[in-house]
Design brief:
Pfam families: Acetyltransf_3
Domain N-acetyltransferase: 25-202
CATH superfamily: Gcn5-related N-acetyltransferase (GNAT)
GO molecular function, one term: acyltransferase activity, transferring groups other than amino-acyl groups
Strand content: 15-25%
Distance between the termini: 87 Å
Keywords: Transferase
Number of domains: 1
CATH class: Alpha Beta
Protein name: GNAT family N-acetyltransferase
Oligomer: single chain
CATH topology: Aminopeptidase
Radius of gyration: 21 Å
Strand order of the largest sheet: 1-7-8-6-5-4-3-2
Number of helices: 7
Largest sheet: 8 strands, mixed
Amino acid sequence: MPAGTAPLRPHRHSPRGSAMNSVMVPIRALGPQHRARVAAHLLALPERDRYLRFGYPATDAQVERYVELLNFERDEVLGIFNRKLELIALAHVAFSASQEYSRCAEFGVSVSGSARGRGFGARLFDRAILLARHRGVSMMFIHALTENTAMLKIARNAGATVQRDGPESEAWLELPPAGFDTRVSKLMAEHFGEVDYQLKKQAHQFWRLLADVQEIRRGVREGRHQAGE
């Protein structure tokens, strides 16, 4: 056994309620129209978190370049929004552009500091696996710094094999073929995520409208008060 390799339970992704967990947390598929939100989320990460996400101290320019090059047609980009429609958790499932490695994908995730401890990273990983299986992927890879214990914990909990090589670690997880339950779970998760986002969007717009109305009323009252004087 290579040095630094941690033998884990058989690395087949266990259902362990994954689909249900993903449905309970509204996860939305992102598209090109969300580039600004993706950039805002990544640029807001503290220096330490940005270092762990990219594996190097990425500058603002490098982060913006990464966002600019995101291929939303080939890859899957997933997000969790709060009530203010701020992107608080983000996952990128990168699929190979080469047909030779079409059954492989790589997973990366970031969670805002204010949203830590809620299991969002694990939920995004579950959803990523669901999507990967649906697209015929049989091997999910995670490349992370060894000190990125949160990411490696997600991989280990899913049953991945983790191999450590000094400051960096590689994890891989074998995925079973997609079945009917996979397709149904995917549709349910997508529908729930979209409905949740639209409700939050309507609520956000409504509160902005109320704020505008209150501002107008305040201006009217001040105008009347000044006129009375």
